[in-house]
Structures
1.
Amino acid sequence: MDRRRFLGLAAKGAVGAAALGVAGCEQAGVMPPDQVESAVSDDASLPTLAWQMATSWPPSLDTIFGGAKTVADQVSAMTSGKFTIQPRAAGELAPGLEVLNVVEQGAVPIGHTSAYYYIGKSPITTFGTTLPFGLTARQQNAWLYEAGGLEVLQEVYAARFNTIQFPAGNTGVQMGGWFNKEINSVADMKGLKMRIPGLGGQVMDRLGVTVQVLPAGEIFQALQTGAIDAAEWVGPYDDEKLSFHKAASFYYFPGWWEPGPTLEIQINLDEWNKLPEQYQEVLKTAAYTANTTMMARYDAKNPAALSRLINDADITLLPFPDDVLQAAEESAFELFDETAADDTDFGSILTEWSAFREEIQAWHGLAERGYLQYVGRSR
Ligand code: CA
């Protein structure tokens, strides 16, 4: 969030004040929202807009589709209903894995999706979501917002996809997914057919897995019919909703390929440039709110869902064997280096990202891990 521009806007009236309230910054010295008139509703020059939003999600996933909904609700609330956005289920405006395609073409002005669904267009998109053995949600936010990550990715999106994007959700560390057999060593991965997207899928491929990418709504059937042997989605709350425990019984952790994946809104750059500055600020703030809200929602809902799965379903919860983790980590960093050799922009982002990763993991390894290890031991 660009704080100076943000606060400048706040002085003009309710858009900023409401936005500050949403972002939890009420102490910043602006008038409370109920004491100011809405600058947006009073400003006849601001257009009435009704956008349709393509998403990659079924609405039944209230956490992740909820990110799209939070953006829409906040934009409407901050513009007194002058600017509305209607999130649409995967498949309505575009197939779940083709949101960026329709936004890039301008067929749809805005989308809510995972950047790494589009690694076929550019491997750089993975930095917008996550990398195997990469950053946690907090580390990802720190890199994107405060260490130049978002800025450099926005340059890439503008140049390659005619699109601008903002983080608008995170799931936190994911689970390692559902398998129809026990995995005792890396050799057991060979020949498995697994649903897993992004670079994580490419790493699995190197471990001998046959990789498929399916949108959320198609995974259960593939797992149940045996078209695939294993599948990952997000974690207990979503996985329970998608009924994966009725199709496979071995539930693995951690999801080393997605330690803190960011979801994002993507906006066609021509549509973005046509927006008044106030609406651009509103969209940025709405995305920021969605980013925070989705993570909080997953953190609040996952523990109870995991308890239900363990207590009520006939499943076996297991950590990945050490040799799977080690082989995957080795393959992941080989893959990063090879990708960097093919794409110099990927390489320069990787260099910055790796330096950031090393520093923050050392810091969190000391403070966060030190604390959590103690708390875990004391229980
Ligand atoms: Ca996943």
2.
Amino acid sequence: MGKGISIGVTLSILLFLLYLGFSPLPLLVLAVIVGMAWYFFQSRSGAQIGVGQNKRLQRKSSVPDVSFEEIGGHARSKKELKEALDFLIHRDRIQQYGIRPIKGILLSGPPGTGKTLMAKAAAHYTDSVFAATSGSEFVEMYVGVGAQRIRELFRDARTQARKNQKNSAIIFIDEIDVIGGKREGSQHREYDQTLNQLLTEMDGITSDQEVQVLVVAATNRKDMLDSALLRPGRFDRHISVDLPDKQARVSILKMHTRNKPLAEDADIERIALETFGFSGAQLESLTNEAAIYALRDNSRLIGHEHLSRAIDKVMMGEKTDRETTREERERVAIHELGHAVVSEWVRSGSVSQVSLSPRGQALGYVRHHPGQDRYLYTRKQLEDQVMICLAGAAAEQMIYKNRSTGAQNDYEQATRYIRTLMEAGLSDLGIIDKDLVGKEMLHAESAKILKDLYERTEHLLQQYSHVFQEALDVLLREEVLSGDQFRQLLKYTASSSDAVRIGG
Ligand code: ATP
């Protein structure tokens, strides 16, 4: 009815304008623009309020089938989490003791370490329905919509639990820092409302409710979170989910190769050794990439070489077709050989590969591993790392008597190590407060260390100068030198010359 009247009125106005001699075209264009904007607004807010949310919850709110056994490593985090979850399982007992229920668990750690997996396993372990959302889904919300979404999230989780005849529900909020960041001044007003609503809902959780709700949140930036979120009675259980150590990497790799045809020569222990610093997600991606390489090679089985290539792919990105001149290739080879020589000198057996194929931003690279996972460094160990970084530039200087722009990243990395060295009180400055000693003093000390280490690197490379010509020819021909091939060359050239080992 209303529609009919408005169409009638619009037509009459248009006819009247025509009669007066005005063109109705601009009005029509304006009407179309307004109509489109209105339609866009309606469809977005419709999706955000209710409709999209319910769909999402319906999709995700059954009990997940991921168990703790399917998460590699993280033994301590899993144990801590299970202990906290036991409170949810034995509700009657905790009520007896008058213990308040755990309302929130915060999982913190680098991206891809398995926080979402842990939350799903928590729901599986406690036989709870699982409702997942992410802080970033609250970005660009209209005022009040975020808070409404939080209310719906809790309400729908409870409804789903009842429907599935479960007496608990786990709400998982990934990237909690997006809505739970520290509140300063009048910024983030909309996020404030969302966060306040979350806190209100959490405060409303009691142990005598028919459906017990537990909120599990994940973040990579725990330091950014508002203290209101972390106070007792809210997210007061903090569990860190760190990068996997070597043993954990072995078990994650085994888990993700279980359904893949591995060849006899595939050495998972070795791959784990060479993937220090990889997250669970990167390890999963590595196994997948290795399988793709095997498929492309028409190989029935996934060999060690496929896994090794996959490390490069995950670490450095896909090979690029960057065209380089012969001169550039030679210089890159010399540069990389410099890194490799010093890396072997620092830790014999540490070089896994020297490669001349451009990947990501790099024109060549050396893959070396620390031998064993390391979390503490002495001054000597940090200095060794700096020397490995400087060795590319020093090798160029030795052969060409000049250096190129290719060492820029190496210098950045070297200065990072030196900063750590100074801030940890390991430099000649002694133990310092970096804010009090002043930038100039830090700069002067850093420059002194850099100069000293650069000279030592140059001196060291001179002792091995005979290796370069030999290795350069092979590298230019083969494009890739495996760690073993490189060590063979080192050994061969050392025995056929008077090279001396000056440390290590
Ligand atoms: P983000 O912080 O980026 O959200 P996350 O820490 O939540 O990441 P997940 O989404 O849980 O990481 O992990 C991504 C994928 O990585 C998983 O689906 C799984 O395949 C793999 N993965 C990560 N950690 C592990 C692990 N410990 N064991 C087995 N697989 C893992």
